Amino acid sequence: MDPVDRALTDAMTIRGALGAAVVDYLSRVTLGARGGLPGLDLQKAGEADTDVVRAKLHALSVLGYPAESLEDILVTLTDEYHLIRPVTRRKLQGIYLYLVLDRHRAPLAVARARLREIESRLDM
User: Fold this and answer.
1) Which of 37, 54, 97, 108 has its CA 20 to 30 Å from the CA of residue 71?
2) At what angle do helices 3-11 and 108-121 cross, to 10 degrees?
3) CATH number of 55's domain
């Protein structure tokens, strides 16, 4: 199975997962996406959230933190969590995992831990 497909399949097994994507934030290209909701275009969300990732990495740089110190970015909405996990391994820099969760069903700590595991196994 393709590494992106494997990561997406694994991400969608997380309790409360509504959608997942693997995105290249250097080129703004969504490499793959699964799931989603009516009104939530994971391709567009992946492209738009590249600005969030870039801004946070820039802020960390200005503050003197290494890029590798960024574990994830959490955006909390009324009914959803949007979890962004940049892949910091040198070989895969520029890639991030994007996970949309049902806020009322997803155990956030478990989802973060599972996304960390998925990221550690991602090999492209």
Assistant:
1) 37
2) 170
3) 3.30.450.30
What percent of the chain is modeled with pLDDT above 90?
76
pLDDT grade, residue 91 (50/70/90)?
low
CA angle 68/96/116 to nearest 5° reads 65
Nearest to 92 by CA among 1, 7, 14: 7
Q: Which two tokens stand for residue 103?
A: 């806020």
CA neighbor of 6 nearest in space, from 40, 32, 25, 29: 32
CA distances from 118 to 39, 56, 78, 103, 122 (A): 26, 22, 26, 20, 6
Q: Domain containing 92: what range?
A: 3-121
Domain count, the chain: 1
Written as six digits, the tokens of 85 are: 């996990």
Single-letter residue type at 53: V
Count of all residues that appear for the chain in the document: 124
Whether the per-residue pLDDT at 6 is higher than 90: the answer is: yes
Residue type, 8: L
pTM of the entire predicted model: 0.92
